[in-house]
Specification:
By secondary structure, this protein is mostly helical. The protein has 3 helices and 2 strands, in the order H-H-H-E-E. Strands 1-2 form a two-stranded antiparallel ribbon. The radius of gyration is 10 Å and the shape is globular.
């Protein structure tokens, strides 16, 4: 289950991307979550996925 708070979600997702997954799609598949839902939640706090850096910025 993903954190509900957007700032905690941001930290969690970026840590997972850095330490365990080569892409957002791999993370979504590995955790069984919807990548678009993550993108939507983090865009609400003005963060976008940067595929080149494999992180939300």
């Amino acid at each position: 289950m993903l954190p509900k708070d957007p700032m905690i979600l941001l930290s969690y997702i970026n840590t997972q991307l850095r330490d365990h997954y080569p892409s957002l799609d791999a993370l979504a598949e590995g955790l069984g979550v919807d990548a678009e839902e993550i993108i939507k939640k983090l865009s609400a706090i003005d963060y976008e996925y940067d595929a080149e850096r494999n992180a939300f910025r």
